[in-house]
């Protein structure tokens, strides 16, 4: 595919409208109105040392006081974050999110906190299966959840909604949480919309291969829902899925060869895989190599992971493609927000990865809402301010999304793993993303029906 009509730099062409919206929102925020996305002031002033790309830092000194809510005092705001690092089947699962949260909390507190209140982080390890228990703890301990991500988040919702605990998560999985109340996320993943830029641009580059696609996913709700949504959207981009889906045990398999042999016998030339990089997918790639099967693998953004890349010394992962709406880290010289993210992570010895960058975006979004609320800090105020944000790009770290309406953006790119390095392959012009309104797919079907959305697109399934 040529870079022509699809390639867009983060501040031109189809994204111009998004930038205008960002600038407008910021202007209101400066006057004490809504919180904002990217700040939009880089064209009128040199960025301060604390700016995050094009976003003015939401952190700094102030005189906000008052115990206005649980977890809020004259001097501090206690938030909860967490991952599934304790899951025995994948030790350290998604730990990079919590690394990022620690780094961003320190970055913010070094500037004076938010309106003068220091941010205090409380860590929760759900280990996948314990999400209801950690949510019960958080309900009585923190002001809000920020930058957390729990794979089995459907199991948390009854508890979270009952205790009115608001969240600005790194990611959502289940339709219950992805369309849940009291929740705003920087990279929306609702049950009823899907950003399919990757599916379209990959199909243009590999039109024959996508006619012989297959899926492979774990036998639990998170990966099943993600796969079902992807299949619906990819079909609209011209993909055809063969009748040879492979469903594996989330805890892993003693022998992966039969799964790969079935895909090979089926003739699948590109496989959409849903799960985690380590150890399951690494074992899948090893098993595929052993039987001489080398399809193209289309993966979700959590596979943009430095540890996974380091593992690929054998080259077994050289046919791995990852969909992204965040800019790759090797483009730091072109994208100031990426450079700032890497600077903060390096200063705190934090693991980098897509989920780490997404947690960073979640923290920044939340912090803007807190700043706007000032002394009268409540979660209702924060969520109310964030619901006004219609274009958010975390200072240029990602392409714009619509957090307030819980709708993804219509841009994306694809990176390919070669050896231990990811490289952008689509669009071909580095530092750009492919954008088109048709890439934003309105979903229908069982995965949407299960969400039981009301007239405001809020899920009633987990309540």
Account of the protein in words:
By secondary structure, the chain is of the alpha/beta class. It folds into two domains: 58-187 and 336-396, Response regulator (Rossmann fold, 3-Layer(aba) Sandwich), CATH 3.40.50.2300; 193-324 and 410-443, Rossmann fold. The protein is 32% helix and 15% strand. It contains 14 helices and 15 strands. Strands 1, 7, 8, 9, 10, 11, 12, 13 and 14 form a nine-stranded mixed sheet that branches. A four-stranded parallel sheet has the order 3-2-4-5. Helix 12 (354-373) packs across helix 13 (379-386). The protein is globular.
Layout of helices and strands, plus pairs?
Elements: E1 7-8, H1 16-30, E2 76-83, H2 95-109, E3 118-125, H3 131-139, E4 144-146, H4 157-162, E5 167-168, H5 175-178, E6 193-195, H6 197-205, E7 213-218, H7 221-236, E8 246-248, H8 257-266, E9 270-274, H9 277-290, E10 296-299, H10 306-311, E11 320-324, H11 336-347, H12 354-373, H13 379-386, E12 411-418, E13 421-426, E14 433-435, E15 440-442, H14 446-449
Parallel strand pairs: 2-3, 2-4, 4-5, 7-8, 7-9, 9-10, 10-11
Antiparallel strand pairs: 1-14, 6-15, 11-12, 12-13, 12-14
